[in-house]
Amino acid sequence: MTDPVFVDLALPPLTLEAGGAVQPHQARAWTWGPAGAPVVLLVHALTGDAQAGGEGGWWAPLIGPGRVLDPTRNRLICFNNLGSCYGSSGPSTSGFPRRTAQAGEGPLAGKGHFTLPVEALPAAITPWDQARAILMGLDALGVGEVALATGGSLGSAITLCLAALAPERVRRVAPIAGALAASPWIMAFNHTARQIILADPGWPDGPNRGLALARQLAMITYRAEPGFELRVGRSQTRGGWSAADAYRVQTWLEHQGQALVARFDAASYLCQLDAMDHHDLRRAPPGLTGDPLDRITASCLAVGIDTDALYLPAQSVVIADALRARGCVAEAAQITSAFGHDGFLMAFDQLAPLLERALALPPGGAA
């Protein structure tokens, strides 16, 4: 069995949906397993990285010999998403385009709202762009067919885009905690997080407090009320009335915010929020015509989380129903978790049999 390795890839230039090109274009991939084995493609979420397995991997309990994602049976591949800051092209690397509109343009200009400093912003990206980057990365690794593509949250959006862009290559998909399109509910949270970052006096050089507060807001949406009760309840750090005697939910949120500041780039965070907002599987990107859903032939297991307040669990049923109506083998399943949207990063005992079920689906895709 091969050991897990990171690979840095030089890829062809990538023209973005919103305009501009990523050039030079690079991607970092993590891969584990023999080159000739069936490929399982893992797609990370908003602030994740390419290391899906091993010590520190975001799905480590699911990955390894004898586990559901077994590198002795499959070749496991994960790319750092386009626009991130862990080795793939993003705002912190050379050659990543900026917004081309003039400052003050856009739907909020002149209406008394906060005006975006457009000239300081990275170019908008979409899950279609991120999926195209992954397909380029697969080409560079010599991978033609993907036995299963799976990911949670933003990763689920990219997974579905992959199935629509390359129906001849993707045999099965397991989108987890996702939807066919980002809802106005999601976009509202992301708008607020974006404005918090941009309102920080340190933008663009170091909006540390803005990024920390945006992360705190996000963490509230990623969890659920029962999970907060279980984790922190109403306990205090010391139990008094001074400013130092905070409730543990407050110190937990502060910790989460500071932890992200220590490891993530604020401009990359804005890029990933853009991608999350722009997800719409019924909007054809350049080069495709008609409804992209009609292109998908992969078998699908769409997984929701019963307490998810960000991507409501019913959305997974919508995904399965839409694909089944188009002739695909498509099923829906649900995780039970007290921890809301983040259940796809925590409920490993339930995820393992679901991924086994996804791998056992009849292969879709063109013959």
Describe the structure.
By secondary structure, this protein is of the alpha/beta class. It has 2 domains: 5-112 and 123-186 and 278-359, Alpha/Beta hydrolase fold, catalytic domain (Rossmann fold, 3-Layer(aba) Sandwich); 190-276, Rna Polymerase Sigma Factor, Chain: A. Helices cover 31% and strands 14% of the residues. Helix 8 (314-324) links the parallel strand 9 (299-305) and strand 10. The longest helix has 16 residues, at 184-199.
Spatial strand sequence of the major β-sheet: 1-4-6-5-7-8-9-10
What is the CATH T-level topology of the largest domain?
Rossmann fold
- Topology pattern, helix = H, strand = E: EEEEEEHEHEHHHHHEHEH
Count of alpha and pi helical runs: 9
Radius of gyration: 20 Å
Number of strands: 10
Q: What CATH architecture of the largest domain would you give?
A: 3-Layer(aba) Sandwich
Tell me about the largest β-sheet. 8 strands, mixed
Mean pLDDT: 93
**Helical amount:** 25-40%
Q: How big a fraction of the residues is strand?
A: 5-15%
Shape, principal axes of CA atoms: globular
